[in-house]
Amino acid sequence: MTTELPLLATPAHGVPPLVDSSAEFSAACDELAHGTGPIAIDAERASGIRYGQRAFLVQLRRSSAGTILLDSEVLEDLSPLNTAFGGDEWVIHSVTQDLPCLQERGMRPELLFDTELAARILGWDKFGLAAVAERTLGVRLAKEHSAADWSKRPLPKEWLNYAALDVEVLLPIRDILHEALIEADKWEFARQEFEHLLDFQPKHFAEPWRRTHGLTKLKSRKDIAKVRELWTARDEMASETDIAPSRVLRDRDLVALAQSRVHSSDDIMATWPKLSRADSGRLFRAYRKATRLTVDELPARKEANAVVSRTPFSHTDIKDRVAALKAAMAELAEEHAIPHDVLLQPAIVKALGAQSRVDVEEFLVGRGARQWQVELSAPVLRRTIETLPTA
């Protein structure tokens, strides 16, 4: 019978008060500046509830400074923390998730340690914070507030308790993962990845409306235009009211509306009664605008900024080449116990499959592969390409 791990229910030194004034923030920065070593950092958003991905709460912990909880929505500019931290390492679980919202508040790291990515490089199957805490510290974390509305004020005491625990475990987890990476001879891999993450920026889409779920089902350019205009109207409405766009109308409803043949805002309200008359009218005007576009004004079926690479291979040949390269990379990933998408981004492997007579190392570097990825992947990819038919 498996013994259940103990639940980490409360922070070791209690739940600190929420810092929500300039004076308290200055005092917190001074405490952190006098702390030592890495800084554990976490952020809580209100994804699916509020517009955008901004941080409503930022949690910090540093040796000799303790845990500090910041009301980042009130404080807004957190850039003084950069000076308080100096050049010391930031420890974050999933940098790609949290760094953008921290950057929005003016925070800029000089060194990073991503505990989620470290666990993935080690080949761990489960790499969420709770799973990593169980494996490294032998404790369970309660995650019942992970999807809470962190824009709520005042924040309940139990939510602050949860938030404080997330950063309390990060520093000891970091030390254990660091040792494990060294023992596995993977520390250099992780170090290069962490350095690369310093410049991380969320992917920018020239036509973000094309990310609408279900859009690919539409074949008519007129219907695609309707989705574009409806998406734009919905996004403006969501931004103005600070709610997630899906709370105005879900993606599947946008697509359904684009395919429908409505004649007035009343028709929209009849199908989606949760919409106000004003919102229904705004969406109908967007719908009607799309129906009045000329052929030249209609959007293309494919993304406007999509890059079409010249290749001497047919579509079928490319598909076969990519399959062979992916199979070779899967074997290499298994050999090193590193997920294939960490070993080398799938998009790079796919792009390489369309190339003829290419210098593999130069191609990988040009696509942003790190040195450790090039050293491991290039020989395997080169040998695989040599076995494939030439153009």
TrEMBL record:
Enzyme Commission identifier(s): 3.1.13.5
SMART domains referenced in this protein's UniProt entry, alphabetically: 35EXOc
Residues covered by the 3'-5' exonuclease domain: 16-182
Molecular function terms from GO: 3'-5' exonuclease activity; nucleic acid binding; nucleotide binding; ribonuclease D activity
Keywords: Hydrolase
SUPFAM superfamilies on file: HRDC-like (SSF47819), Ribonuclease H-like (SSF53098)
A Pfam family: DNA_pol_A_exoN
GO BP: any one term: nucleobase-containing compound metabolic process
Class in the EC hierarchy, top level: hydrolase
Name of the protein in its database record: Ribonuclease D
Lineage: Bacteria, Bacillati, Actinomycetota, Actinomycetes, Micrococcales
